[in-house]
Every structure is written in structure tokens, then in C-alpha cells.
Amino acid sequence: MHTKFKWTRRTPWTLLAVLALSGCLGNNDDTPQAGDRTNPNEGPSGGEFVDSTGLQCALSDPNLLIGEGLDSPSVIQAITPAQTPDNSAQPSTGLNSGACQNNTDFTMGTGIADITGPAAGSVMMGYESPTHASLGLHTRQFSRAYVLGSPCNGKRLVYVVNDLGMIFHAVRQGVLNKVAADAELAAFYNEQNIMLNATHTHAGPGGYAHFAAFNLFRLGHDEEVYNFIVDGIVLAIRRAHANLQANPEPGRLWVNNGELLNANVNRSASAYDQNPQEERNRTLTQRGESQNVNKEMALLKLRRGDGTPIGQINWFGVHPTTTGNTNPLVSSDNKGWAALAFEKIMGTRYETAPGENTFVAAFAQTDEGDSSPNVFFKDKPFAERGGSVDELKAVEINGSKQLARALTLYRDANQMVRGGVNFAQFHVKMDQVEVTDPVILNSLKHPETLNSAVKKTCTAAMGVSFGAGAEDGPGPTVEGATCNNRLDPGRLTRDLAALAAGKLPPEVLAGAALCNVSALPFDVVPVGVDLACHAEKPVLFVLGAPLNLSNDTLPFQLFTIGNVAVLGLPWEITTMAGRRIRQTVLEVLEPQGIDQVIISGLSNDYVNYLTTREEYSIQQYEGASVQFGPWTLAAVQQESRRLAMSLASQSQPPAGPPRTVTSNPIPRPPYIPFDQAPGAAFGDVLAQPAPKVAAGNTVTVQFQSAHPRNMKTRGLAIVEVEKLDANGQWQSFTHDRSPELLFRWQPFDPTPYLSPVPLPGFVSTALAEWKIPANTPAGQYRIRHRGVAVPAGSPQAFEGVSQAFEVTATGATCSDGRTL
């Protein structure tokens, strides 16, 4: 949040954080010190953390040093003491006034549920590649729900973070319908106060949209995936609601902010550099360089009145694209890795009795549009872009950085959230917005060459450079094809260079036809659609009316949690676009006692990217993926400002169109099970583990198996490590939610994973791969595999168990072999 420096109520803590943590995790001496304690219920040993050794290991992880020096902290201007405000004071009028003035009592509940769906046999959501199909499991996907209420005004809200590629309109519609049908939930929650956020992993089952644009490469709509996701989100909400109802006593919320360096990079720097120099100069590093990607992590900490910690939500803008478009394993990627690691340190229980406390740690998404985790993509070969040629190791590298920063922000959080809970939401017909708000118009600083007398949004369409993909997952063509200088002879030169690089040449085609499709002698544009509105964008295909391949009636949602605002928008928002939106909303809400605006991107729906007008003009991948044309950001600022003003005045949200209702999407071909196991029984062990292995090594076991789509039990491990206890009983030791235990499905014929219809006589095996942490205790272990076979007719559940094997201890303190 560095659009321009402004003193806010959190400024003193930001300054202290910069001074105390100027290395921003570059220094591995980040262990908790007694003098740093700010939590009254936390002792010098870090009493909030169940696994204090795991905490120490996480904060001294050598992964934190990978890429050290790539970034420099942002410049914070000096503040004189005379400018210091009274942190405890809030306005006597407005949102946080009356009974909510300086309120610190919040009711709260957390809930978590598995939303993984089929572990194999789906084309994944994120990369537009029909061959990016799943063949196993790296980590499970979860829905993490938080219910927050303020007794001072009797209001509640629900914020749900989901390990998904996107939250599509269909998912939100399904969740809202099920909540409305549940009498207990419907009494408290509806579309006004439920916000759904996606982390944006690119490695989860796809096909769960209703609009065809997002199902095309997934062979159609996959109802099984859709239902598993929707039901799981609702289950997480029910659990959070039950947790609050069982624990109605007020607790406290804390907020903390700090920079995380060397964990993200602007993958579209050339577009960012189109923004005005004066605007870019507002956010510089200590080295005098432009800070061209958001480095700030914001964290909200939840703790009950008796000191019991129950959760945290943090927001940091980075793509979960550490796994690439050839990764075959379902994965929640870097954010999911960090969430699971945080929850392990906190002793999270994933299945609890209704109402019981369990710690839920969400790593939510914010303005990640041009932010990549692959910090070496310019300097190293593509395979090493994330810091390792092993992309699962690269997930760990980036995840460990997010984890460590979140742990320190959580540990040191001491700014109490003050005020009440409020919310507002409305829908906007995004292809019909004209920007007329003088505040927004006066804020525009683009060059006159990019101006237009009337600033309106367009029928949704994607540009040619959408086909180029981003640097994290390049596509078949190249970025930068525009409608500028159509007769430029350099177009042919660039096309020849693209051909030489094995890419489709877009420039000549764009200039000759796609920038001028309305004038072609044959009908290629739907009647009534004006594509000239898209300015520099050569249109590759139309998504909007009358084709209606994507939603154009979009939700805008705004929460205030005391002095913190969370704005939910359905776009992937670039860094500078995010700065402008935050400033627009903060200027409205700051007089109400709000000192921080957090953008919750990829929330409640999904319509690709949101860039500035200047970034749009050169049509990189992100600009070409702005569906509604060059003035979309100005329109979003205008509508967000309208929403903020309605909330500030505590009036009804602006009138807008009703929420879109969709049904009957084009389905994918049906899955027809026909599992076979010639010469063996389902679950038979085909390859046993070695009888003895030292911790720090890998054990594999192969089982006769069946198609994973047959197994529909939520949360039940497909593969699981068990340990023999002192009483001679086998106990679960490692669940397949853990990134150290991989499940790889091995069909004997590789084609069925691309087709939903297996061949007759279909045979498959399963490989369990346990990368044994170096600090695993000595003992006897075994690996169990579960599945369901459908050879012909009714499903048959089966299990297989390996022989026991001995793990010898290494004496290591940490999972990577270090001894502290």
C-alpha cells in the first residue's frame, strides 16, 4: 500500500517493523526473544505455538536465503512525533461510532473442509492446456472459513479462502443456494455477508464453472468436481458457524503488516513501466529502484477471550504457479503448502466434533495479477525459474517464505482491531459502465494518446496475446500484438522472430484482420457488438453477449472489520491497479476510522485480469486478458467508490442488476468405470518397501489399484503412513494432505486420463511415495492404500497395507536434517 505516503493508525507499527525486520527474512536469526513478546497470553517459549521446535525450524529455514538480495525494502519516509495520532481514538460518527466506537470484542468461529475432489482423471484449472491432466496428489485442497461478528452492532460476516484456481459464479451460486436452504445458516448469512476467495492454484481439478469459456479445455462441466467443491465450502461454513455458536464469548482480533522480500517478482515489468513516472516513484526501494510488485503481507489474528488461538488470515499477492503446466499432481501450490505448514505448527485437527476449536490458517489472495513466485525466470533456465529444477521443491521454497513471514507477523501482532463488523454488496453490469464520476476522471493521468472522450466498458472479449500465456506458463504465441501502427514493417520482423522461436506469429494477422474484424466482408462479429471499443486490443474471440461465454453481471463486495476494510473483486489485479483501487476506497473510508484497505482478488466470480489503462496499451498477456476493454479499471474504481460511499453512509447499496442465475452447463462426457486387476486383487502390494531405511530418505510402495474417481469419501486418505505405538497398535502418522507423502496414479494405458471413458479391461496401479522427514522418530512404519474399484456393476471398497519397515532416527531437529 504505497500509492502515496499517508499517516495511518498502523504507521508506527509499520515503521517499527521496517526497522526491526529490515532484512525481511534475509537474516535467519529470527528466533523469538522474550523482550519481543506482545501477546499477554504467550510465554517466553512461544506458548501459542503447539510445535515450538517446528516454529524455530521454519524461521531458520535455509530456503529463506534462496534469492537473497533480489529485493530491497521499500522506502518509508520519516515521520515527526507531532504527526503521531492517538491509536485508540476513533471517529464519533460513522461506521465505527456509537456502541462500536473503540470496540475490541468480536465473536468468531473457524472451520475447515476438504474440497479436493477426484485425485486423478481431471483436466486441471489454471493453465489453458487440455493435456494438463491430473495423475495423483501432492497436497489436498481445503476450504477455510471464518465467521466474525461484532456484538456492538449485532452483525456477522463470513470470509472463506479456498485452495482453488478460481471462484466461479456457479460455485458462489451453489454455496448461496445451499446456505439459503439451511434454516440455521440462512438466519445469519446471505450474499451480502459471504465472501469467497480463491488462492488461485493452477493444479486442481477443473470443469466446475457454468460459463463455457472456463470449461472448454476441461472437456465440459464436471458435475462431480463442482458438487464436491460446493458441498465442501458449505461444510466449512457450517463448521465455522458451529464453532462460533459453541463459543459465543467475545475474543480479540489483531492486525499486523510487513514486507516479504525475495518471494515474488513482476512478470510483466514492461507493462508496469508504462505507468506515469511520478506514480512509479511513489514506491521506491532503499536502492532507489522501482518497487514494481506489492511486497506487503497483511495478517489478521484471531484469539478467544481466554487466549486460545483459533486462526489467522493473511493476504500476500503472488501467483500459485510454482508448479507448471506439465505437473501431473493435484496441489494447492505455495499458498496451500504454507497453510498446511502453519497448521502443523499450531496442531490443527482436520476432523473435529461440531463446535470444537481447531486452528485454521488461510493464505488468501490479493493483487497478484503481475506477481510471479518464479523469481529467477529472467536469470535461469525455465525449469529453474522457481529456485529448483524440482517444481515440488520450488513450491516448498516459496511456501516456506510465506510461512515464515506469516509466523513472525502473527507472533508479533499487537495492534488490536477496533470497531464493528459491516458489509455491503451489489452487482454491476460490467459491459455497460460509463465512467462519469469526476473524482475518478480527475485521478486519471494517462497520456493524451490513450484518451477517449467517452470512457465506457465493452462487450467482453479476449485479445490475441491471451494466447501467449504469461511467463509462468507460456502459450503457443507471443505477447505484445496490438492495433497500434498497423502498417509498421516491424510487424513482419517480429512475426518471423516468433516463427523462429517455434511460436505462432500474431502481428500481421492482428493488424490486417483482428483489429478490423467489423469491416471484413463476412460476418465474424455478433450483431450489435462493437469491438472498436477495445482500442489497442486485437480481438481473438468474443466472450460476451450474445454468446454469453463468461459472466458480465459481477459482484462487488466490501467488508469492514473494525478499522480494516476488505474489498472483494472478481479479477486478477495488477500491482499498480491494486494501488489505485486501495487509494480510491481508503479516501472514502478513512474518515470512518478505516486505516487499511485489503483487496481480496479472485473473489465471488472470475473474469480474468484487471490492468491500468497504460498497461493495457501494450497488450501483454495481462492486458489482453482484460475482458471489458481499456477503461475497466476506471469503471472498477468508480463502482468500488460507490459501494464504499453507501457503506460509509450506512445506506442501502446502490441499485444494481440481480445476480445471474445459470443452469444446465454443457457437461463433459460421462465417466464409465471398468476397473480390472488381472492376476491380482485390488489393494495387493506389488512392490514392498525396503525393510530398513534412515530418516531423510524416500520409501515407495506400489499397489494394485483402481480409478481414483471412484473414491468419493471427503477427507479419507488415499495413501497414509501408519506407526506402531507402544501398545502394539497402528496409528495414523502422515496423511496424504501432507506434501511429504505423494500419491501417483499409474494407468497402464496413458490415454484414459485424457479421456473420461476408460478402455475395456482398464488396469492401473498406485505408487505411494513417502519422503521421510529427517526428524522422524525411530520406529516401525507401514503404508496403507485405500480405493474403490468398479469392475462391473457395484463399487467395491478395498485397502492394501505394506509390510512394516523400520525407520532409523538421525537425531535431526528439523525435517530437512538440521540440528538446532
Structure description:
The chain is of the alpha+beta class. It is built from 16 helices and 33 strands. Strands 2, 3, 7, 23, 24, 26, 29 and 30 form an 8-stranded mixed β-sheet that branches. Strands 25, 27, 28, 31, 32 and 33 form a 6-stranded mixed β-sheet that branches. It has a 5-stranded mixed β-sheet with strand order 12-11-10-8-14. A hairpin with a 7-residue loop joins strand 2 and strand 3 (133-137). Helix 3 (169-181) packs across helix 5 and helix 13 packs parallel to helix 16 (632-648). It is globular. 56% of the residues are buried. Residues 1-46, 77-87 and 752-758 have low confidence and may be disordered.
How would you summarize what this structure contains?
The chain is built from 16 helices and 33 strands. By secondary structure, the protein is α+β, with helices and mostly antiparallel strands.
